[in-house]
Design a protein that fits this description.
The protein has a domain of 91 residues. Helix content is 68%, strand content 4%. It contains 14 helices and four strands. Helix 10 runs antiparallel to helix 11. The protein starts with a helix and ends with a helix.
Length: 365
């Protein structure tokens, strides 16, 4: 190979251009020094694709977007089961009745009328499904026990935890507080010498203590009921006197939010209406730590917050009225100035001739 052939071979060689690689490295190094970020072509293409997708979605009509949210990715290819099997049709090519049927079908929750009634009942009464199940289960159990009194479990008493000997000794100690333990045990042994008489005596004692326990429970229930009635009456009286909420408690002349009868009824219902467990919504809320913290915040900061918002808008309104008054005052001055300005025509018939000659010679008229 001569020198010319060697030179031509070098010019047409497919080896990478070393100078070009060096130049690219130098350019990348310069970009890094200048803080210019390197452009990732694949990332750039993805961003452009996302932008184009967003633009297409913005241009879509609301029905197409709704259909896609319901699982129909391409509204122009909705699948139907026809006589010839699965067919594809464009939603926009269907008549209004067919379109309406499709929308009804994809929005139908698949619930029966009874299931819908159950859901509405739960929402109306603000109870969970488990609470309703427990309520009706207890109701059915009570009906069964009323029809079958023999199935009612016997009532338990705390006195049943004591044996006959313990009960007899406890009663002796109550009747004879000054007796020693040896003396009490001696009387117990004497009583037990006649087993039949001892059992009868213990049975009378046990029934007596049970009756006393029943009276104590009844008195506690009556006291609890009376306490509830007193609380209820106090809340009703308090609600009756709760007529307004000051928008600004620092201003005696502040406007107020008027409390209507419907508001009072909602408040009393929130405080007093009890569920199957005997708890009102208020009691359940204070048992919930998160809700209790929220109630505490409203109680501590609610009035101050309402007053602060009211004062803020009062200041805004005051500034606007002040600016309006200033503008009205300036406008009034402008109107008065126009009324005082009088334009008089110059009279030339009775003017001295010298003045006329002067103005004429001056060339000003």
């Amino acid at each position: 190979m001569n020198e010319n052939e060697i030179f031509d071979h070098l010019l047409t060689d497919d080896e990478p251009d070393v100078n070009q690689d060096v130049q690219e490295q130098e350019d990348n190094s310069m970009d890094a020094l200048l803080g210019i970020p390197t452009i990732d072509d694949s990332k750039l293409e993805n961003e452009i694709s996302e932008l184009e997708s967003d633009e297409v979605e913005k241009n879509e009509d609301i029905i197409s977007i709704f259909l896609k949210d319901k699982g129909i990715s391409d509204p122009s290819k909705i699948q139907f089961e026809g006589e010839n099997g699965i067919e594809e049709m464009d939603f926009n090519s269907l008549d209004r009745e067919e379109q309406l049927n499709i929308l009804k079908e994809i929005t139908d929750p698949g619930l029966s009328d009874h299931e819908i009634d159950v859901i509405n009942y739960l929402r109306k009464n603000q109870v969970s499904f488990n609470e309703v199940v427990d309520y009706f289960a207890n109701q059915r159990l009570q009906e069964y026990l009323n029809e079958n009194p023999d199935a009612i479990p016997p009532k338990t008493y705390s006195i049943d935890e004591y044996s006959d000997d313990e009960l007899y000794l406890a009663d002796l100690k109550y009747k004879y507080p000054s007796f020693t333990d040896e003396e009490l045990l001696s009387k117990l042994n004497i009583a037990k010498s006649d087993e039949t008489l001892f059992e009868k005596e213990v049975d009378v004692l046990r029934q007596s203590y049970k009756a006393e326990e029943d009276r104590a429970h009844e008195e506690a229930a009556l006291a609890e009921q009376q306490e509830y009635e007193d609380l209820r009456n106090s809340l009703i009286n308090a609600a009756g006197s709760f007529g307004e909420i000051k928008l600004d408690f620092t201003d005696p002349k502040s406007d107020s939010l008027v409390i209507e009868d419907s508001d009072r009824n909602q408040i009393l219902s929130y405080l007093l209406n009890q569920d199957k467990d005997g708890k009102s919504q208020f009691v359940k809320d204070i048992e919930n730590p998160e809700t209790l913290i929220e109630l505490a915040w409203y109680r501590i900061n609610g009035q101050n917050t309402l007053t602060g918002v009211t004062q803020y808008w009062k200041n805004i309104l005051k500034e606007e009225r002040k600016e309006r008054a200033s503008l009205e005052k300036q406008l009034e001055k402008y109107k008065n100035k126009e009324q005082k300005t009088v334009i008089k025509n110059r009279e030339t018939t009775n003017s001295p001739s010298g003045n006329l000659d002067f103005w004429d010679r001056s060339g000003l008229i």
